[in-house]
Amino acid sequence: SAVISQKPSRDICQRGTSLTIQCQVDSQVTMMFWYRQQPGQSLTLIATANQGSEATYESGFVIDKFPISRPNLTFSTLTVSNMSPEDSSIYLCSVDEGRLGEQYFGPGTRLTVT
Amino acid sequence: EDKVVQSPLSLVVHEGDTVTLNCSYEVTNFRSLLWYKQEKKAPTFLFMLTSSGIEKKSGRLSSILDKKELFSILNITATQTGDSAIYLCAVSRMGGSEKLVFGKGTKLTVNP
User: Fold this and answer.
1) Were both Cys, which of B2, B64, B67, B109 would link to B27 (CB 3.0–4.6 Å)?
2) How many domains is chain B partitioned into structurally?
């Protein structure tokens, strides 16, 4: 499976600021996804990062809050904008490598907003 | 609305015990069911199941899918402390969105 890296691994940020998380894959992939996992909760899909076009956001997530870039087939960024303590979560990127839906996850970014 | 329900939500066992984790689902246009193990941040892929009745096995872990009754089980035999983790079940659909729908997970604690 593809090797996925994320930066930063963790960060502590102040309310009102923004943080950009990077996701790098060691091979070209068509589908990249961004998930959020709030404390004690399961994974929730934020958006699908599409190469060369705007991301597709899930219900409850908007581009102004979570802008996403996908400049090529190996890289994507997620920005968490105007952060509040409710944004404290683990943020994960994943890639879909197969035809049957299997996704592989990056190591995650643990974000704490104070 | 697509739904994935896992049970139990948490489980505490002793080393050497055998555990069975459950996952039921309701999803339109089912494609596959996946199991992940989450120890710290990143979920690690365990199994993908697409056909009923065919057991997938990896060491002490095994899983099977029942597409008629819409559920899957994950078995872990001879548990070890290193099996302590959250086990996540997810379902993917055919056509349109490739997103995974996750259950809330089962937190397994294996005590020495």
Assistant:
1) B2
2) 1
